[in-house]
User: Fold these one by one.
Assistant:
Number 1:
Amino acid sequence: MNPLLHNINLSAHQHFLHPNHMPWHAVRAEEELDFLSQQVCGRKDEQLRATAYLYKELAQLAEIEFHVASVMVRVIAESQMRGKGELWEGSDLVHALGCFASEEVQHANTFYRYVRTLTGCDYKLENNYFQERITLFQGDHSPLVKLAALCATAYVGESVITVFETRMRNMDPEMKSPFTRLLHLHGLDEARHIRTDHFVIDHVLPSLTPLERRQMEELINATEELNTTLALTSAAQLKRQFGVDFQTQNRSAEVQLAITLAFRRAILAGDSFRKVDDFLDSDTRALLKDFSQSERVHFH
Ligand SMILES: [Fe+2]
Ligand SMILES: [Fe+2]
């Protein structure tokens, strides 16, 4: 047994909310739309821009979650024949990844349902680059190389959304807003994903050979490139469809961009990847403190 891995999901069944726990009937209430407009754009009369921004960001996150879940299932399946070494002994790693993957499927489902309920619109992404992003992971690299690359890219986005969850939990401690509830539902599972990512940093990375670390780096770079393309094309499409530019004069969008770039610098380091809080510069910490009341991103 691997106690570190085993403990991550030990009480997952007690710290989990099914999407049916969301107050779906209140997602689009007038009071909630005002609240979102205030939180996103800093004023109450920007409902359309605020909700269009959330549509874009949460749809994009859902697409990344579908990819993470799909590749993780592939890693588990491939580990049957190719999962060599101590890390694959017993069922702890398979269990941790199985929980991770299934939770990401539910997150993607929940985020899509949320943005469609919120806006009353059902805009499908014209290109989600799913095939291209999956193809990257179809080669014969070892399952641990694929796992490490996948976690490195997921960890950046997971760290960014954690900052938004911390902000909303401070703004709305009683979780009256369905949006706060959404981020809380997501964050319950994300806390375990972050611990899994940290396990990968501490225990999977050191097990890779120099060649495998270069393969991981290539997979990370190619995935990041496609994720950036996804971000740019989905923003352009949704600006056209909603008829508003939701990225200008939008404090959330500005902070999101700044911390995404800062987190990439902190986390992605050539043939390695690192815990975000260990490598943040002082300007980014000050920005986090101002935006979310906490200069730390993760507490586990
Ligand atoms: Fe997620
Ligand atoms: Fe996650």
Number 2:
Amino acid sequence: MNTYLYSLLNQAFINKKQNELYLRSLKSKKTEDVYPVIKNIHKQTFNKISCLECANCCRTTPALVTKNDVKKISNHLRISAKQFLKKYILEDINGEMTLNGVPCKFLNKDNSCSIYEVRPEACRRYPQTLRQTQQPLN
Ligand code: SF4
């Protein structure tokens, strides 16, 4: 983890109470008032962070996978959907599927994704702050 990420983690710990109060205060605000705030924080933060330096999400959080993801990725890997499910997927009792194991089996040593072009929809949505803005970030 780089120094900036450590400092963010440290600041989050030190300011935990203030952050919780701030997050609670956002609940009373109108959605359209919150988006610009999130967009601004997202821009400031991701100007200083490269996911390729970190990849903590890919190391620690099994990505959700849809049926469409299964089709796309198994085609890409040139294996059957059945083989893909057996080798790479965990399914819970509700039928929800995730990639099995962490770190992700598709994570390369240099933190890149070996199936980047066909990565699951859930991975495409990272970081979630980007999604929250519901508008493209420049
Ligand atoms: S599929 Fe790629 S982007 Fe998604 S968790 Fe695995 S390595 Fe990360």
